[in-house]
Amino acid sequence: MPVESRLLERISSRRAALTFLGLGHVGLPTAVAFSRAGFQVTGVDTDSQRVRNIALGKCDIREPGLDEAVVACLDRGGLHVTCDSYEPIRMSDFVSICVPTPVEMGKPDMRNFHAALDAVKEGVHRGMMILIESTIPPSTTSGTVAPRLRSLGYTIDEDILLAYCPERLMPSRALEEFASNTRIIGGIGPKSRRVAAELYKTVSRCVEVTDALTAELSKVAENTFRDLNIAYANLLALTAENLGADVNEVIRLANTHHRVSIHKPGLGVGGSCLPKDPYLLIQHVPKSASDLIRSARKINDEITRHVVDILLKAMDKGTGIKGKRIAILGVTYKPDTEDVMNSPARYVVEALTRAGICVCVYDPYSPETYGTERASSLDEALEGADCVMIATGHTVFKSIDPDHMRHLTRSGCVVFDGPRILDAARIEAAGLTYLGVGYGIQKGRVS
Ligand code: SAJ
User: Fold this and answer.
1) Could you say which of 225, 230, 310, 375 would form a disulfide bridge with 381 (CB–CB 3.0 to 4.6 Å)?
2) Active-site residue 219, yes or no?
3) What tens digit of pLDDT does each residue of 284-297 get?
4) DSSP calls for 412-433
């Protein structure tokens, strides 16, 4: 039977066996989604501790509902996890590569991806389909993966099907977004496109089919767009501070135009995707045009340094900063997650500590300390603080009572609201000084 027909039949009958290489924040939720759809799924990870934990139903990735879903799939026998990739790949109809592809010094580090390709090479066989979910530099599918398979004697889109199907999962909403996000299918040829689309239709509400290169470009394009948009919001924040306006109100009003949608300014851009994906795109952008992306990255990095400068000035008040105490609330890279990857909070903690300030962090989601003191409760963090900084906009911090904060902190305490989640008027009414990114109407008080 031709490869395409056989795989289509195995999808519709749910007899297809799927292997996922990499059980991180992409691979594990994806493996779970296909297992729930009725397929026989094997998850492979080189980290034996992670595999052991998942087998016990304890995932190291915090995603609402993931632990329960993993346990249900394991109990049903629809999900197996292992460190050994050879046997699962040899027995699978579909193998999906979901390993991280970090960037080092602006250049993609493809070691995990190449290791996964080596594993695929060991167990590859005629009649299977290879899927790639990892974010990769554009043209990797046709320029690197396809030639490696061809060198083994296979005809691509005939003996072996190949598609790039980028993940688009928002960390902390992975399971919810898995089904609701449109899935881009970038097949290397018509047969690969058709089979990959049919497979993903079993788990996604909507699929869009294209070629592999267009899919690769679209993935890095969407994260680069978000980084550029945030850089623009941060640029407006700096401008509003200079002129003495409130950037939140500026952006709110600009966004009332139905063709404008400016993101939010903040402490900087963290996580494992936005700070890196623009560098995957930039490798292919004409040099004359690449400054746009570099400038955006620079603004998003510099806003963090700018915040440190504001904090140092605010805490000095002519009496010096040595020995002053700051409570930093939130260490993770974004709200309501445990993930600290590239968190701007790290830079702030380290810079303030170097300047001689006593830094105490508190985060109900993460035990991370960045080498400083960690409070075990909000009150403990606030006690005796000269400055309180909200570094991450966790929902729980929105309900901090300003009067309670005033009561616990030192006289003259400054509240710096990075994500702008507190009500400035209520903070001021309680007798505290309110500062925030882009909150220029307080300019006179800190300069
Ligand atoms: N941030 C701002 N202002 C905003 C939005 C975000 O400063 O208006 C900051 C956040 O605080 C955080 C950083 O940007 O530090 C990144 O957060 P994020 O929520 O924008 O993105 P990620 O990295 O958690 O997830 C992104 C998502 N991509 C898009 O929304 C286009 C997700 O859908 C992708 O699947 C993910 O990257 C990925 O894996 O590529």
Assistant:
1) 375
2) yes
3) 999 999 999 999 99
4) T-EEEESS--S-HHHHHHTT-E
